[in-house]
Amino acid sequence: MAGALEGLRVLDFTQMMNGPFGTMLLADFGADVIKVEPPEGDTMRKTGETFLGDDAVYFLTLNRNKRSVVIDLTTPEGQATAHELAAQVDIVVENFRPGVAEKLGIDYDTLKPLNPRMIYCSTSAFGRVGPDSKRPGMDPVVQAMSGIMQLTGDEATGPLKTGMPYSDLITPLLSTIGVLAALQARNKSGRGQRVDLSMLDATIFSMIPRDAYYFATGETPGRIGNAHWQIVPYNTYRTADDRHIMIIAHTDKFWQALTAALEAPELAGDPRFASKDGRLAHRELVDSGVAAAFAKKPMAYWDAKLLAAGVMYSPVLTFPEVFEDPRVQRDLVVEVDHPVAGVFKLITNPIRLSENPPSTRLAPPVLGQHTAEVLAEFGIAAATPKPAHS
Q1: 231-235 contacts at long range (C-beta below 8 A, 24 or more positions apart)
Q2: 334 bridge partner residues
Q3: What are 91-134's pLDDT values in tens digits?
Q4: Catalytic: 107?
Q5: 146 in Cβ contact with 204 (< 8 Å)
Q6: Is a pLDDT exceeding 70 seen at residue 388?
Q7: What is the pTM of this model?
Q8: Do residues 22 and 13 touch, judged by C-beta distance below 8 A?
Q9: Which among 12, 139, 168, 287 is annotated as catalytic?
């Protein structure tokens, strides 16, 4: 079954995380993504402490379905090769700090005359203009500058970053939408265009609706951990066997279901807690009462009771519980056979299309694995370093 983006060629100059994640999404839907790497390889190949074969698992997670071509963009010969490739592709993607693409001869103004139909996508930490544009920046720095870190944690912890690289993920999700919108526009006009997005802007945008609270009140939402400033109960609670459970009762219906399952008549019958406003006004009393009830029994007991009662809840699952779940194994976990690392597991693309679903076709490439193959396909004389592996 053909991928939805089959026939599209993507020239991928990105490294590290936010760029490669975006180009992987395109590759999952069938685009031919040609990953251009310097002779030493994408920095992510050697980042972190966990390796399979020669490459870090970080790299392997982000670069399936791509072909690797080694080009030294610091040389005139390498830049000439990049220009020949760019002239024949549909999409070019880069995530260098502003000014670097110009130095390497692969900036939008240089490549556009070579290929007027080209979609050129740039992502950066802080945008292409302004006093912060040339600053180095990675995910935690962007989280701090965006305000999202100020929202995370509680008064005891102080500001916290999220448990995963949030800014590195929301940016490519949004930039990929921009690329697909530009492709649709090209279908009508025949002309390409530039897609530009900063990690900072993407992260600020994603804080909706917290922005509305600030604009309406002039106040910053407080850090209240797993709780919610407008809903009670909305929190995690500890069970008798030292597990945690997430509970949301945002309507009277869900509050009644929760109190019935908790076998807590003192909560169900208290008139102060009968309405959403009442529960909000007595947050500490509600939270302490719910916490006391959950502390009486182990997780397995509450799991069965809450499920039967139709409560909105979930145990806070461990990684083994998440990744060994039969549904996750069936729908999300795939195995790939890598020429060096051997067989290992990846999380596949979760988007479902009935006619053109995404797929995991190629293992993440070895550095330079496809240099000769790609240059031959594009009719380019091989003037770049030989592949590290044939």
Answers
A1: 231/276, 231/280, 232/279, 232/280, 232/282, 232/283, 232/286, 232/287, 233/258, 233/279, 233/286, 233/287, 233/290, 235/287, 235/290
A2: 346
A3: 999 999 999 999 999 999 999 999 999 999 999 999 999 999 98
A4: no
A5: yes
A6: no
A7: 0.93
A8: no
A9: 168
